[in-house]
Amino acid sequence: MSIRVKLILSYFAIILICLLMLVHMFVIRTRDFFQEVADSTIGDIPVQKAVAEVLDIVVDLKYIARHEPNRFKDRDFMAEIEATSIPYGIYIFTVSHGEIVYHSSSPELRVLDDKLFDLDYEEDTDITSFNMAEYKTEKAKLHVLRYDEELYPDFDTQLYLVFKYDDFDNLGQQIYGGMFKTIFQVSIVILLLMTLVVTKMIIKPLKKLEDATVRIKNGQLDFKLPRSKKDEIGRVMASFDIMREELKNSIDKQIQYEENRRELISSISHDLKTPITSIKGYVEGIKDGVANDPEKIAKYLDVIYKKSVSLDQLIDDLFLLSKLDLNRVPFNFEKLKPNQYFNDCADEIEMDLKKLGFTLNYQSQIDSTCHIMADPQQLKRVILNVVYNAVKYSENSQRIEMKTSLNEEKIRVTIKDYGKGISKDDLDSIFEKFYRCDKSRNTKVSGSGLGLAIAKQIIEQHDGKIWAESDYGVSTTIYIEIPCVFDQDASDQ
Fold it and tell me: Could you tell me the domains of the chain?
């Protein structure tokens, strides 16, 4: 769930909870209000009884105002009415033809003598109802009800009832004011809780991200960030952790490249210095007269020539390997028949091996309809490099076996020698540049140590692969695989 959705749901939850609390508290407070009203008194009279009697008084007054308005001029009658209504907080004013003909005896209400006609009464469409107005004094708020109805054409009478009690208003404000105060307090608590949730959900992960940035800045890359969350922050942290891993791998590769570069320089220096030292020694021997007869001179010159050829081959291999690394070796791919191609290679290799006292056993098990897309010169270089590498390390037997076969739509070339074999620790490294199983490099076997590295890069350019298997002390087998196409597949294309 995204953070945006979470925030929307959180704020919606706050609003919903507040509304539910408002409704709940309104119901409870209203019930309590009416209960308090029911339990309260006006003077010594219960409210329920007082309200009923007040309504009776109002109804009687309205009846008299309509049917017997002349009675309002009778002071004895009005005094009797006042004695009945004052205990309930009702005071009476009667007006006839625009003049006050009777008002209650309460001194507090004398302020209404001049204000009674100027108050802003709310008009009511029901002519039988009272119209209400309010008037505030320093001590109380007065509610004025005016009942005016022309009962007779020549008699204009208005009846004013004044309520001095405002306890109910204060009670309502206290109850509902407290309700809103409580809702406000609960809302603040909910907002604080939501803030804590948002802090845990957003701020803490961002703090971890900041700490991770500082650690990366200080070069510390061996740590992990959590990737469990699926929201935006989780995706950012996952991406950041992937970046950290990529950076760590890049630095590790850079360190490995630097180590390989140093080892490469060391290996090149050694392999260049060895033939140069030999050439220098034999030249000094000729100059100093150590070779003092034609036969010895010819021998010295032959050694110098061979060392020069070895040096020249090393430089050629280095140059080729450099171009392969930079993808600057042009490959001229052709559609070749593997039977014919590898038969020709085997014939040429067999003749060369005879001169070295080796024999080549060659077998072909390839379907005649299969073809390969390959550069014939570069592929031949691979076969020669592998075969001559096998010759160098053959000690127990002077027999090399070569076989070609079809393996899951790939041409497989197998070259096996019966030399001293390769240990398991060295088996995965023989295709690296300048790698030799003899770490001291004191072996009598000559060579640049680049043949198998060059072979690997050429095979990879053919979308193939090369690997080795060895039975230490018995034999070593090199496998080469190249994708092949069939005549039917080629025609479909």
Answer: 40-165 (3.30.450), 232-322 (1.10.287.130), 330-492 (3.30.565.10)
